[in-house]
Amino acid sequence: MAHGSHEEDYINLGLLSMPALPLIYADGAQQDRQDNAVLRAENESLKNENYRLQATLRNIACPNCGGPAMLGEMGFDEQQLRIENARLKEEFDRMCCLVSQYTGRPMHPMGPPSDPLLPHSSLDLDIGSYPRKFDHQDHMIMNNCPPDHMISLPFMPENSPFPGNSLILEEEKSLALELAVSSMDEVLKMCHMGEPLWVRAKETAGKMVLNVEEYERMFSWSVNVKQHPPHEYRTEATRDTAVVIMNSITLVDAFLDANKWMELFPSIISRAKTLQVVHSDVSGDASGSLQLMYAEIQVLSPLVPTREAHFLRYCQHNADEGTWAIVDFPLDGFQNDYPPSFPYYKRRPSGCIIQDMPNGYSRVTWVEHAEVEDGPIHQVFSNLVSSGVAFGAQRWLAVLQRQCERLASLMARNISDLGVIPSPEARKSLMNLAQRMIRTFSLNISTCYGQSWTALSDSGDDTVRITTRKVTEPGQPNGLILSAVSTTWLPYQHKQVFDFLRDERSRAQLEVLSNGNSLHEVAHIANGSNPGNCISLLRINVASNSSQSVELVLQESCSDDSGSMVVYTTIDVDAIQMAMNGEDPSCIPLLPLGFVIVPIGQTNNMNDSTNIISNEAANTIKQASDNAGQLPDSGCLLTVSLQVLASTIPSAKLNLSSVTAINHHLCNTVQQINAVLGNSSLNFSDNVNVLVSNVAPEAAQDKPTDPNSTS
C-alpha cells in the first residue's frame, strides 16, 4: 500500500517513468521544503536590507551642494510608482471629503498636507519676459528626442516633510524653562551692552562685531552646554536696531505664529513650523510661552545652501519697561532624534527686544548668533556669507521694516486714487496675489526643500544652475518645469540696477526680454516710503497686428538696504478680474520670473549716486580684483531667474535642447543688461578715473579697499 500510494504521487507529478524510490523521494521532498524555507527567509532578509538601503540613499547629502545626492537617472519602475502613488493619494483625499460630508466629522488626508506655499509653478510659459506656450513642434522634439540628447536632473520634492518628530518630554519641560530664562538673560545683555562684548572692526567697515573671548567669559554656561572641538565651526554674530511701523503686540503675535512669521520674512524663511507648545500661560497671555520650532532660512540663490534648525522660542513681557523680548535657543541637553543639518547650523541664543513707540511704531533691537559650518558656497557669495551679511541681523531688520510698510499699505482704507482698481477690497486682493508671487519666486530660486541644482560646466567661475520640478497638483499646469538661475557681479550701484530693471520703459530696451513688445502701466499700488516699493499691473502692447488675447503683467518691485527684487509674471485679464471681484486668488496660476540685486560694500546706501561708472572702468576694477583673488568691494550681485514649462507630461525626460535654449537666453539677458547700463553710464567717466586710480593700486598690493580705514 505504501508503495502504491507513492506511485500515485509520481503519477500526479508526471514522474511515472522515474524509478520508484519512496524513501529517497520522501527525504528529498523534506530537504526541498527546508531549502525553500531558508530561501524565503533569505529573500525576506534581502528585501528588508533593500528597503533600508533605499532609505539611506534617500538621505544622502551631496558634498558639493548640500542637497540630496544625485544617484543617476530615475528608473522607469520608480516613475510609475510615483505616478500611481500620486493617483492613490488623490483618490484617498477625495474619499476623505466624501466621508466628511456624509458623517459630519472631519477625516484628515493621508500624509503631510500639501503646503500652498511650495514652489509649484502654474503657467505654461516659455522663456521670454512675456512668455508664450511651447508650440506643437517643441513638444514633438521633447518627446521624440533620442536618449543621447536627454539630460537627467534632480527633481524638486513634491511633499518634503519636516525632519524629525521628537518632542520635549514632560520631565524635560522644567529644564527647558530654566534654559529659556538663562537664554533670555543672555540675549538681553547682548542687546544692551557695548564694549568689550561688542567691538568695532576695521574689516567690517566699522560695524559692531562680537568679541568671542569676552562672550565665552560672560556666558560660560551657554558655551559649555555642548562643547565642540576648537575651530570646528565658525561663530557668526551680528546686531542691529531699527524702527518699524508695527506695534509690539502685533509683532509678538507674528513671531509666535509660524505662518505669520513666514509672511513677515518671505524672502528669508522658506518654511517654518511650530512642532510643540511646551508651555503657555493659562490666561492665554503670550508672555511666558515656550514653543519647539523648526525653520529653514535661505539666501535667494542656489549657490548658497539653506540653513535648517530646530530650536526653542521663548517670549517674555517686561511691563515696567514696556518691552517684549523673543529669544531662540538650541536643543542642547534634550533627548531628540533630529538629524544635524548639512551644512551644520545651530542657533545660539538669538532674538530681539521690541520697544513700543508712539503712533504704532516699535523700536526693534535684533541679535543673530549661530554656530555654522561653511558648506559648499560659491566664491561669488563667500564674502557676503562669511561677513554675516547674508544671514545677519541687518538683513532680518531691513526686510522686517519693508514688510511692515507693506502690511500697513495692505490694511490702508483711506485710499483716494485707485485708478482702474474698483475698490479697496480689490486692491487688497491684488496685493495678496503679488505677495504669493514673491513667495513662490523666493522658494523657486534657492535650495530650500532639498531642491538640487545642476551646474552646466565644470568651471568654478560658472554660476549658471538649472533644476526641474514635476508639477501634478490641481490649479497648476501638469508638466515638467525647467528653472535656470545665474548670478553675475556688475560694476554698478545697487540702486542704479534696481531702478533700471523695475522701470518697464527702460526694460523694454532689452530685446531678449521684451520680444519687441512694450508695456503700459494700468494700475499702481505704493507699498512704502521708497518709491521703488510698489506693485504694478502692466498691459502688454504687442508690436505686430496680432489676434492673440490681451495679456497683462503683474509686477512687484521691492528694495531695502539688504537688497532688491523685481518679480513679474504674465497673467490673463479674466484672472485679474476674478481677483478684483473678491474671489479666492489662490487658484490663479503664477510662474514668476525676476531679478535679485544684492549690494556689495558701501553701495547699500540707497541715496548715494556717486558710484555710477563706465564699462571701461568696470573692466579695470574687475581685473584688479581678480589679481587680488576676490570680488571688488563695490557694485552689486545680479541674480537672474527664468522658468519654462518644458513639457506637459510630468514624467517626461528633459530635452538637452531646452537646457541649451534657456542657458542661451539667460546669458543674453545678463549681457544686454550689462551693455545697456554701461552705455547709460558713459557721462560719468570723470568719476570713474578717480575711482579706478584708488582701487587698482590697492588691489595690486593684495589689499582690500576700505574707505573707512585709517592709517
TrEMBL record:
PANTHER family, per database record: HOMEOBOX-LEUCINE ZIPPER PROTEIN HDG5, HOMEOBOX-LEUCINE ZIPPER PROTEIN MERISTEM L1
Organism: Rehmannia glutinosa (Chinese foxglove)
CDD domains tied to this protein: START_ArGLABRA2_like (cd08875)
Domain of life assignment: Eukaryota
UniProt keyword Cell membrane, yes or no: no
Name the UniProt record assigns to this protein: START domain-containing protein
A matching Pfam family: PDF2_C
Residue ranges the record marks as coiled coil: 29-56
SUPFAM superfamilies assigned to the protein according to its UniProt record, in alphabetical order: Bet v1-like
InterPro entries: HD-Zip_IV (IPR042160), HD-Zip_IV_C (IPR057993), START_lipid-bd_dom (IPR002913)
START domain: residues covered: 169-409
Matches recorded under SMART domains: START
The entry's keywords: Coiled coil, DNA-binding, Homeobox, Nucleus, Transcription, Transcription regulation
